[in-house]
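$ fold --in a.seq
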Amino acid sequence: MIGQPDSVFKDRHYSLQALISLTTVNYIVFALLVQVCVNCERVHWFLWVGMAGLAWYNYYTIRRNTEEFEEKKTQIIYAISLLGMALLYYLLGVVALHCKPVAAV
């Protein structure tokens, strides 16, 4: 019988399934919130409620998958995805609306 090396069970490779699903949900929900709640005059209060719900979902998902999110590579990818959401806000909430600056009276 062939023996198994000890490192097989120590070197667990976690898939990126939780990170991919979390990032996908973040981008879809955030894009919908920006499209619905942002216009040239103001930002609707529901954007902040939706962002709080999204933050709670992120916290819950990261706590549920702590082993996967302990890896440095996963933390870097998650931080870059959050920066990408800021870029998405700029593109959808500022550039796409073609708002003209308000002239001072």
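$ fold --in b.seq
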Amino acid sequence: MKRAIIAIAGAGLLASACASDPYGGTNQTVRQGAIGAGIGAVAGAIIGNNVGDGNAGTGAAIGAVVGGAAGAVRGSQQDRANQQRYRDSQGRYYYCYDNRQTECYWENGQRRY
């Protein structure tokens, strides 16, 4: 059981280390979702083992799903908070992240520059 917990937690941490968008910025939705899945798996395994049914694997799976979903929602909110909305000379909207004009996207998701 301890190996399963370590494996699940390690997988979550490895996935969070690779969570970035194709342009080099950090994607908080993916990153925090992976971290939440790892933490949820460990917590679920511990809770599942303490309940007494001896089936920590099911608790770990449920914890990973719940933790991953909660982390992804939180990360998505943080990604939206990091956006700055602008309008070009033709009235079209575009978004830039972290107040940098080097990482901007049109409303449809295509890169502006």
